[in-house]
Amino acid sequence: MQIVLEENELHNHQIFLENGYIIVKNSTNTYEKIQDELTSIFEMDLNRIHQSDLKDINPIRLDAIKRLNQDHSFHHSIYNDFKSYIYSLVGNELAMQKNINLSIHRPNISDDLLDIHSDSLCGNSNYELTVWMPLTKAYDSNSMYIIPLKDSVQAITKLKNGEYKTIENLKEDVKSKYKFINIDPGETLLFSHNLLHGNIINETSETRCSINMRFKSLLTPYDQKEMGSYYIPISPKPVTKLGNMFDEL
User: For 39-73, what is each residue's pLDDT tens digit?
Assistant: First the structure.
């Protein structure tokens, strides 16, 4: 039986399956609300955080993350902002990451580096969609890079086959493949974190701030990031609830 999709949904599927990601327009002002919240915490424009006198901003970053996650309206807003895309790409019976993450990438600060990795090699399952939302302009070296889907598959295959002795060998092999994500606030990257990704030293004059969280089908494998500790159910259906009840008998 052939599943009939709307033309725009089919188009999004094709883009995602070809690239492992899609860039979409935000449907509400969620990013502005989060931006305002964080601006009040840091007491300055987010793209100028590097101009702060504080030598260690991590305690403030952790406090900001705590405050974002105490107010579940942000979770709801992010979910509702991208609900149609999540339903299309993942399904409508979902689990959501419990905690929103905040990343800060300042100019010329090596402490802000996130080395090349794939989340599915670090305890997450293969069946997750990452929502990566910039709160400041993300461009060039202040942004995140991804390794294109085909190159990520090839490199991870070599890694699992033991062809790379160290992660540095892998990095050197894919260095020419870095694709930096250039997007503005009001746009969001939805991507499979199976793709290799990371960042490099920020050589721009601006700090990049972004948030991220993950969604997955409630019924797909969880690996080490489990329901309850890392994920919460947000849209279980009645048949699944009854099925789980009988599984526990």
Answer: 999 999 999 999 988 778 888 999 999 999 997 89
pLDDT digits (tens, 9 = 90+) for 177-209: 999 999 999 999 999 999 999 999 999 999 999
Mean pLDDT of the chain: 92
Separation CA 244–CA 249 (nearest Å): 9
Task: In whole angstroms, give the CA distance from residue 181 to residue 139.
Answer: 6
In whole angstroms, what is the distance from residue 249 CA to residue 238 CA?
17
Phi-psi region of 77 (alpha: psi -120 to 50; beta: other; left: phi over 0): alpha
Share of the chain above pLDDT 90, in %: 78
**Sequence ranges of the domains in the chain:** 13-247
pLDDT higher than 60, residue 220: yes
Tell me what pLDDT residue 1 has.
46
Q: Is the pTM of this model over 0.90?
A: yes
CA–CA dist 180, 198 (Å, integer): 10
Superfamily of domain 13-247: q2cbj1_9rhob like domain (2.60.120.620)
Strands 187-192 and 21-25: antiparallel
